[in-house]
Amino acid sequence: MAYQKPIPLKNQDNKPYWDSADKHELSIQKCDSCHKYQHPPGPACSKCGSPKLSWDSFGNEVYGTIYSYIISYRPFLPGFQDDLPTVIAQVELEGLPEIKITGNVLNCNPDEVKIGMDVQMFWQDINEERALPQWKLR
Amino acid sequence: MGDISNRYAIVGIGESERSRKSGTTPLHMALVAARNALQDAGLEAKEIDGVMSYSTGDSCSSHQLATYLGIRPSYVNDVMGGGSSTEMLIADAVGLIEAGLVKTVLIWRSMNGSSGKKVGRGYDPDMIQEAIDGGSFIIPYGSASPSQWFGMFATRHMYETGITREHLGHVCVDFYEHAQRNPKAFLNGHPLTMEEYMETPYISYPFTKHDCCVELDEANAIIVTSAERAKDCKSKPVYIMGISARECHPHAHYWSDLTQVASDYVAPQLYKSAGVQPSDIQVASIYDCFSWVVLRQLEAFGFAPRGEVGDFVAAGNLRIGGSLPTNTAGGMLSEGYTHGMNNVLEIVRQIRHEYKGTDRQVENCEIGICTGWAGPDIAGAMILRN
Ligand SMILES: [Zn+2]
Q1: What single DSSP character describes residue B281?
Q2: How many CB pairs under 8 A join A and B?
Q3: What backbone torsions phi and psi does residue B292 show, to the nearest 5 degrees?
Q4: Is the distance from CB of B237 to CB of B42 less than 8 angstroms?
Q5: Which residues contact residue B305 at a Cβ distance below 8 angstroms, ignoring those fewer than 6 apart?
Q6: In whole angstroms, what is the distance from residue B146 CA to residue B376 CA?
Q7: Half-sphere exposure of B324 (CA within 13 A, CB side)
Q8: How far is B24 from chain A (nearest CA, A)?
C-alpha cells in the first residue's frame, strides 16, 4: 500500500538535509561565521544572522539520547490512525548536544520510553525516492 | 517608550457569546464584542480612532469591523499573532496615543476557534508543513497539534524539575472550580476532581483533554485610552502600571533549549516598569493554553522558585482565597479561549471589584498581573491596578 503519512517537502532551505536523508546520511547546517550548528536549517544563522552557511555530514551511524517525548493517542494528521499510540521524541545528538532532532521512536512499547534513553537513527524508506530518518531504542 | 506608568487605562471590555458552533462569522461576533465594550466604557463608536486586532488568518479585518461600527478611524492594524498579542497590541495602543496619532483604541480578537478551520480539520497537511517554519521536520512525524508541541516541552520540564501529573492536575482542578462560579464559563456545570483528572485518558501524554484549552467560537474587545480621557468614561478605569514583551527562541514548534522562555526575560522588565514585586500581586491571569504553561510562567514571573512550583500549586495558592488567585473565571482551560484575551477581561473585572459581594471576587485586590504566551518564542505581560 502507498505511504499514507505526510512526506517531507523540500524547499530552498531544507533541501540538503532531505537530499542527504534520501541517501541515508545525516547532514546538519553550520554557520561559517559563528561556527554554531543549527536545526531546523534556515536561510541564515539564527544565532548571529550570518548568511554564510554550509553543511556538515554526520554519515549514517547516528546516535543520540531522548531529550523529550510525547505519546500521541490521537491522529492529528492523515496516515497516523493505524499507528497509535505514536511516540514523538526530540533526540539530542551524541557529540552535538545543541542539536535536537524530532522523530518517531519505532518498534517500542510507548510506555517504556523515558528521557535519557539511548537511541540510534535509521532510515525508513517511504517510497522509491524518499527516506525518513527515524529512531530505535539501542 | 518613556515612563507610561499609570498614564493609560483599560476603560471598556466586552465579549460575544461563546459556543462550540457560533453559526455566524467572526465579523458578527466582533461587532457584538465591540459594542459591548463601547457600552461598558460609555463611549460612542465615533470616539474610537484606532482599531487593532490579531489573528492566525482565522478572522476578519479591523477595516471591516470599523466599517460596520460606522466609523472611519485614523489608524487600523491587523497583525498575525497568537497568545502574547493582546499585551503587545495594548503596548502599541499606548505608543500610538503617546505619539499623538490617536486618542482611544479598540483592540479585539474574534475567532470561530471550534467550528472554523484548524489543524487536523480542514487544512491540507502539505499546506501546514509549508506554513510552519521548520515544518518538514515535524509534520512527517505526526507532530502537528499544539498539544503535542507543548507536551514535548512539558515532559522535559517535568523531568528536570520534578513536576508531576498531579501538579498539572491542580492547575486544572482549581481553574475548573473557578468556572463553576462563572455562569458564562463554557465548562460551568462540569466540575473536575483530582480523581477524575487522573483517570482521564491521554490525548498526548502528558496531557489529557483537561490540560488543553477549550477551543470555542468567541470574540472579545478591549478599549484603551489615556488616564485623562478615562475620567470621562462611565466605567471604573483600570490603570496600566507596566507592560513588557519580548521575542526569544527561534522556533516555536521546535524548542530545543528549555532553560529559557521569553517570560524569563519579560518578567524583570515588567516588574521594573511597574515598580512592584511579585509579592505585591494579589490576583493573576496567567496564559493557559495548556495546564503546564501556567507552571512554567509561575516560575518565570517569580511566584515560585524553579523546582518548587509544583508544591506552590498543590498548596492551593491558585484558588480564590489562596495567595495568588489565578484565572478566576476559569481561564482558557474552562471558561473560553480567544488566544488570551478572555483572561484580560477577567483581570479587569477583578481589579474593578465588579464581583463585589459574591464568591467570585478576590477581596481587596488592587494589583494584578496578566500574562500572554504563544510558546517558547514570544511573551507579553502587563501589571494593572485599581
Ligand atoms: Zn552564526
Answers
A1: -
A2: 120
A3: -60, -35
A4: no
A5: B299
A6: 12
A7: 25
A8: 26
Does B126 contact A98 at a Cβ distance shorter than 8 Å?
A: no
Instruction: Name the amino acid, one letter, at A52.
Output: K
E-strand ranges in A1-138 read 27-31, 37-38, 53-57, 63-72, 86-93, 96-104, 118-125, 131-137
The answer to whether A102 contacts B204, with C-beta atoms less than 8 Å apart, is no
Whether ipTM > 0.90 holds is yes
Give the three-class secondary structure for B140: helix
Coil/strand/helix, residue B278: helix
Q: Please give the average per-residue pLDDT across B191-218, as a whole number.
A: 97
Give residues with Cβ within 8 angstroms of A2, minimum separation 6. A127
Nearest to A90 among B126, B201, B256 (CB): B256
Residues of chain A with pLDDT under 70: none
B277 φ, ψ to 5°?
A: -120, 165
Pairwise CA distance, residues B109 & B337, whole Å: 10
First-residue to last-residue Cα distance in chain B: 23
Query: At which residue does the C-alpha cell 479598540 appear?
Result: B106
Residue B124 contacts A, CB cutoff 8 Å: no
Q: Write out pLDDT tens, residues A49-84.
A: 999 999 999 999 999 999 999 999 999 999 999 999
